[in-house]
Specification:
Elements: H1 3-6, H2 13-26, H3 37-64, H4 72-83, H5 90-102, H6 117-121, H7 131-138, H8 146-153, H9 155-170, H10 172-194, H11 215-220, H12 227-232, H13 248-258
Length: 274
Amino acid sequence: MTVAASKKLSYDWTIIIYMASIHLVALLAFLPGNFSWQAVGVTLLLYWVTGALGITLGFHRLVSHRSFKSPKWLEYLLVFFGTLACQGGPIQWVGLHRIHHKYSDTEPDPHDSNKGFWWSHMAWMLHQIPADNDVPRYTKDINEDPFYNFCQSFMIPIQIVLGLALYFLGGWSFVIWGIFVRLVMVFHFTWFVNSATHKFGYQSHESNDNSRNCWWVALLTFGEGWHNNHHAYQYSARHGLAWWEIDITWMTIQVLQFLGLAKNVKLAPVADKK
């Protein structure tokens, strides 16, 4: 599918309105009355919980790739945190990610980087793409799980409950920063893995696609920016393979392993290859 062909896909106006609303409300953070250092602190804490623990550790390394095993209660907790990132329910997220890896940078890839930076960053989500219909075939291990289906169906109500809790804790500044600013941060930092790390950086391994290792994306996403390493060894719990490729999420997995909460940890055969 060429860039021109992708434009012929029908727009998903529900997603367009959803994304536009979140970004517009986040702009209210620039009003002086909505700023407080406590609200910034809440934002950073929730960014770590939903982005690092939820998306990176939970949705991605644990569920999408099963790079390690954890107790079911911990898996559900991480999936819940990922649901709070509002990037779609866990079943949809995992399914689309698995499709991406199977067809990386080819026509069936939902965010094929060959269609341009804007497409791979976020434009693909604003259209009704064929991959959405294929998700059930790639999520047979979680399709029937009641908790996954709960998170899939009630993503927005769960976020509303969090918003109400933040309002009672700190008023509108907590809501604007802790919900909307935080969501914009998690959105774009995660999307950089689809866009920037398929365009900027270096390749250490043969991966048969455009994936690259990008240090600044790794910094923003707790290690996800070592993307060429990841595409070469998709099953590996560790993405930063060279000693200087800092991977905070791998460090987190090591802590869980020490505590007996991460087992059967899968690793790339060469941990320090340049």
